[in-house]
Amino acid sequence: MLEIKNLVVQIEDKRILNGLNLTVNKGEVAAIMGPNGSGKSTLSYVIAGKEDYEILDGEILLDGENLLEMEPDQRAAAGVFLAFQYPLEIPGVASMTFLKAAINAQRKARGEDELTTPDFIKRVNAAATQLEIPKDMLKRALNVGFSGGEKKRMEILQMALLQPSFCILDETDSGLDIDALRIVSEGVNALRSPDRAFLVITHYQRLLNHIVPDTVHVMHGGRIVRSGGKELALELEANGYADYRESEAA
Amino acid sequence: MPAVQETIDQVRLIDVDQYKYGFETEVEMEKAPKGLSEDVIRFISGKKGEPEWMLQWRLDAYKRWLTMNEPNWARVSYDKIDYNDIYYYAAPKMNPSPKSLDEVDPEILKTYEKLGIPLREQEILAGVEPQNRVAVDAVFDSVSVATTFKEELAKAGVIFMPISEAIREYPDLVRQYLGTVVPVTDNFFATLNSAVFTDGSFVYIPPGVRCPMELSTYFRINEKNTGQFERTLIIADKGSYVSYLEGCTAPKRDENQLHAAVVELIALDDAEIKYSTVQNWYPGDAEGRGGIYNFVTKRGDCRGKNSVITWTQVETGSAITWKYPSCILRGDNSRGEFYSIAVSNGKQQVDSGTKMIHLGKNTTSRIISKGIAAGKSENTYRGLVSAHRKATGARNFTNCDSLLIGNQCGAHTVPYIESKNATAVFEHEATTSKISEDQMFYCQQRGLSDEEATALIVNGFVKDVLQQLPMEFAVEAQKLISISLEGSVG
Amino acid sequence: MADVTLMKTPAETALVQAFESAKTALPGDGESRAQAFEHFAQQGLPHRRVEEFKYTDLRALLREVAPFAGTPSAEEAKAALAGAKALAGVDALQVPFVNGHFVRDAVDFHALPENVEIVPLAEALANGHDWLAKLSPVKWANDNPVYQLNTSFMADGVMIRIAGPVEAPVHLRFVTSATSAVATATRILVVVEEGASVTLLETHESTDGANHQPNDVVELIAGDRTNVQHVRVNAEGNKALALSTLAAKIGGEALFNSINVTAGAATSRHQVFAILDGENTNLRVNGTTMLKGTQHGDSTLVVEHAAPHCESRELFKTVIDNEATGVFQGKIIVPHHAQKTDGRMMSAALLLEEGGAMNNKPELEIFADDVQCAHGATCGQLDEDLLFYLMARGLPKKEAESLLVQAFLGEALEFVENEAVRESLVGTVEGWLKARA
User: Chains with 3 or more CB pairs closer than 8 angstroms to A?
Assistant: First the structure.
């Protein structure tokens, strides 16, 4: 599904990713853990195609297609979805307007017909109910004045509506209380399917109690330094990242 | 907060008639004939022992000035100035260019003592840590009477001397830079200054040198009917740093006196200049009689890449202030900053602000202006921020706040924001408000008097800017602000 | 006549000649015209050294003076109005003008809505009318050369009295259908009596390709406790030099909302002079300006809080594409006695491409101490993080830009109360963006 080979990335002359290799298979939920500053968020931005990053080497393939040659919107249409750590506020654009514009843009890019308004509303309502998002929130400008938890739920709502094949959750647990964490995780778990892969980026193990991963990768110094099953997350929770820092110093 | 307590004490101690620098010094003076003519310019140039090119420069400026009109766009009004009723040169008779302090008229030394400006190096050295030392150039009417720490600075390669001396000793350096930031033809007052300037400071910091101490010039107008036309030129060569302070006072008189200065700053690659002013010229009395007309042109040129120029000003004095310290951001990645507190009371008129001209790529500027109007004064912020076509990535942030105390004064904001580059991002915000009743009540409920509460709140209002000043200056400035607002409450 | 000798440019000379030859033919008392023209002639066309015209140099922009348009025939007028499109779908009382002349046949004077009274201006000027004394209610306009030119040359217009609540909007529809360049000078006076309310629509359309020179003035006197909603649309032809003025004097405890939407004309300048003349009044003046190509759009605003306890909000949004130039000059004046004034003015501009320019000059002139006034000005590009967010959700770049621009401009349109009008304005914005893509 997703293959990253020897990815080297810098920003303003500072090397962030340093020959990173990673494979995520169809249906797999992969977790990436690592200390602050290890390059986790950079990885998510680079997959989604944010400017500002200079790709020095390597490739990112989604189902064999090179993502690095695509614009962010083309990547989205190809199935990449990034749930932002800090979702942006867009004053003046109602959430509904935004959702409809995004769905139809992707459908158009894939050569599908646009959704009819009743069909669209039906889908939004279904997803909103599941994520416990009140209707009036959808009428407000996107993310403007939303609480941290509301913003994250809005991200998952978008994921549910856009039906991407590869989902990245960037620190989705940050700023969530326990109830919000439960709602968001249930939303994500409901989307797990044999055709869809997830990359869950997190600093803490807590989220992985709710979204149980198939594989866990430890990121440090801009590359994957260790991979294993879900038990690796527990080990990290117990021992912290100190081992990895020392190994760097040595 | 001890500084606040100090301010409060000051406010309490001082009488309604607050200006404490208003005394006169009895010194015998030599003056040029009254009025302006080619002969007077030749007289000044001769007194300074200037080379021919300098005289010619002055005469050209004078010819140009005769064709110019006094600007009238500022929000200030005053009776027409008779430029032939002013003395353009006045110097103490005893020794107009003393070699050491022993040659300086003791009356003048006493003056500076009274003003709290130390001129004797030994005395300064006695109680001050080396890093807190300040070198002083003391300008009395038209001449510099003393410059301290010259030798020590020379060891670091720093040139710090009266500009009249620099014209004689470093003519090439002066000629290379003089008039390159503020051209002779720049504006009416700058052109006048170019023709008749008498003294001021010259500073050159060689490449890579961090000036070992603060430099400062203390300007004193003493003589009646005399204009002061100082000229300051500061050059920070590649990778150097200098912090420069300027202070000004004058005696109380019923007549207005003209002060038309020009200051030019040049920062080459990676150099930084901090220029701070505490301007406390005599503001006139409560009825608007007397006071200094402070019409000055100050401009810095960030000529080299990564250069930085910071203007900080605390303006409490002068009957009229017309002053716009500006930055030309020519070098890529250069930065200009302007921090200003302008306090007006009585019948003072202030029209001040800055210009940030973005020419180079990724240039940034920041403007923080705090205007406080009290009494029957008028206080205007006037500023220009512009990005030219090639100023890709230019950034400006401007914040100007005005505070009114009493309802017989005026506070005005006139910003010009011009962008010719789509990648330039300019943000400007301005507010006008009064000290809120809730704030006052809260302070009073905790036991502060009206005046104390005002001082406290005003100090909070200007804090952002005060923080930019060197420590000792900040304390001085804070006192000054409270004194200036004395009698404005209630 | 004094000082005519000061005139320099051919356009200024042409204006003198035009006035000399027209003054006897123009309706009504020639004295006030002559006085206004003399004032104008003393200064001439304002240029960049005149502070208020620093960014819109009329001396440079107005090279040739177009002839003043004659009265159209009934057929011409009918055809012109049939082709009018601005705010077309909105149900309103139509008060149409073609080539600067009131089309009185198009108004059924016997069946005017309740509380509406209309007097043709040309007639009133020729025969005298009580309401004429109410013209020029705002002192700030009198020194303005654009206003003075209108006073000198005004040939037609209407005076409208609103005596009570009026349901359907009153739509002042201006159409210039001449195929060669013409100048027009219309004057509208609207008097809204105490407690009355009305929605005023104003649309300006003209033929493309001709250097039309409309100069229109709308004057409003709104009494205490009035509610006036005013929407103006500039859909002038692509070569027009359009000058316009709104002069409003508002009484106490009143509401006045005005928005100007500029999409047309090669060069436009819309001036608003407003005086808040009674306590507890609420004023909102907004602007939405869309510029492309080499268009030049100027919004100039003076708001005087002449009474205490008033609130004013000014919000101007400008989008600049290609090599267009935007101008915003706004001034809030608060005299000594206007305590408890709350005034906020904001101008925000987006530059979409290299080559555009924006000039902002937001001013505060405050003499009262117990006030809260603020202004802000920003200019810059679309936020790149927002663009990325939208693109990461699958929107192509142009579409993402359009959505953000629409949201940006929409903020200034939100306050239009009449839903049909607001939707029509949103449609104008969408149309502009579509033409861009």
Answer: C
